[in-house]
Amino acid sequence: MARADGYERCVREAATQAEIDACAPKDEPIEVRVRAKPPARSASDVEADAQVLAAAPHGSGADVLRVLPGVFVSDRGLPGRAPHLSLRGFDGTSGQDVEIFAGNIPMNQVSHIRAPGYADMRLIMPEVVRSIRIASGPHDPRQGDFGVAGSLHMDLGLEAPGFWLKGGVGSFGTRRLLIAFAPEHDEMMDTFAAFETDAMDGPGGARGGERSSFVGQLGGGTNQVQFRATVAIGSARFDFPGYLPQGPVERGAYPYAAQRPLGRDRTSQALVGSDVLWSLGEGTMGIGGFAGKTKTTFHQNLTGYALDQLAGEPIVESDDSEMVNDASTFGLTVLYRHGVEITSKRDSIEMGAYARVDSVDQTDTRLFEDGTKNAALVDATIDATNVAAYADLSLYPIRRVVVRGGARLDSLSYSVQDRTSNAGLERTAQGFVVSSKAMADIAVSGGVHLVASYGEGFRSPQARDLDEGERVPFTKVRSVEAGVRLKEGKTFQGSAVGFGSWLGNDRVFDAASRQNIEAPPSVRAGAQVVMSARSGPFGAHLSGTYTHARFTGSDARFAEGDPVPYAPAFVLRDDVFASGVVGRLSGKEVTVRVGAGVEGMAGRSLPGGRDGKDAVSLDAVAAVGWRGMELALNGTNLLGLPYYDAQYVYASSFVKDSAPSLPSPHVLVAAPIAWMLTLQIHLRGKEREPEPAY
Predict the structure, then answer these.
(1) pLDDT band at 609 (very low <50, low <70, confident <90, very high)
(2) At the topology level of CATH, where does 33-683 sit?
(3) Hey, how many other C-beta atoms are within 10 angstroms of the C-beta on 453?
């Protein structure tokens, strides 16, 4: 960002491009601040900027992730819980295999009752996500727990300073209000505050609920110091309709019916994170901290009256249950980066340390049909401590070649008090894991780079599964990737890669326990192509990913060679957009903005050798703007193609005296064509006039 106050004021007040061109900067040095993302650790590292994110409508911060290559987001019709997230053949359920950050706040929750790594990004408004960066694979020493398939980083900030007011109404009783502002101050360029509230009835009237959230950030700096302090607080409560047997739906049953009585999902989050970077001579020092208080509640009955019969016992009560996870998190990060001279004067080294403490209270209670307590299936308190250190070395041994590599050591310790067994005595376990990383980047010519990467990562276990004195059994992954990157300024960027990952043991969703349970080791191999092009007012961002995922071991449910269930083999995404001035009204420009996002998913395998249903969806937006106002019409699933937002295989019986079905697909049908009309008002601050002299 060029900082010359007079020049900036002239540009801000200009009405035409000719007036902007006439704004000559003063005859004085212009301070230039460069915002750069970290160096790519693999050929497939990709960043989606604000233009790509705004190409198609998005309902939440979780929905925004769909623009990233290889990412497929499902369970979108259940807005009261974290979405189902798949990446490159890893069925991450709710975040177990993907490390996720909003600003500098880690979103993954340790040993969550539903899935280790559970991450709910829905409290983040799409308007405050300035860009998203994906690092596929565990190739960076900074990556820690849950960075198995890769890491996602949301950079937060408003599109422009000033005051923002946005409201909208739409299909299925949807209504939304956003209020936000950001100061007009160069040294506070990352500062903003935003409030959102929304509500909906949902298709069929069985997916209704409300959400409210606040996200604020104090950020900016000077040449010597950069700082950020981010706060995100929100709550949501939505009805849970359950999953319908697929057979009746395909025979014409109403697709938006719900199992009765309705379940409910509730979540509350209070998250804070901060970091400061100092330029100390030729080096950089950084320190950050984060803390969080989260609570999630799932009241659900997925199987009806099947659990007693599947256990060989007479039916006593329904399978209705309530799961609660109440967690507190505290953490600290420190790093120091400095140039060294090993192979050249451009070499550098970074060392860092990380510490995180989590305290988790979790219960799983089976209920009588009147909603009172039947039996405690889980009643535990978990204390988890993760202390880590890493080193990362960058070398430039010869011209056009950079080699980066390092290692990370994580020590994890657990204390589990299980009040459902052994009189509530504590079980303790501890262990450490070392992860190695390496990559080579060769600049060929004309913006073409050949990149090869290797990395190891890990996922922490479900702490309740640990035995007393056990050495922590980490799930480790080894990953390789090689490919080519091409960049022609902002006009064209692209990459083509091949990749492979070997996972020590998987986790797969199980409806009987309503959580992810252990599965055999697995392997994934595939390829990915990403292209981004800009020309004048037009732009496009395309990606295609293929992954072949198979188990390499066997257990009671899966055999060696079986496909890994639920994660799609093909994920395709295309975001296109155009914007420009179409005329003038009362001396002010009239602008038009249009965009669309097309997503396709295919090759999703289900347990039992079944094939899941493929899906194609189209979302689009058309908007017209004038004098700081914009009227937009958003449309989702515009092709009107019915598809399943979720598919799981399990046995169920929703009639008390009937035998449970054999394991079969149960589905959540995606919402049909929907519209939303929004009005946005943006007011810029006005420079204060000088006081008159008397």
Answers:
(1) confident
(2) Maltoporin; Chain A (2.40.170)
(3) 30
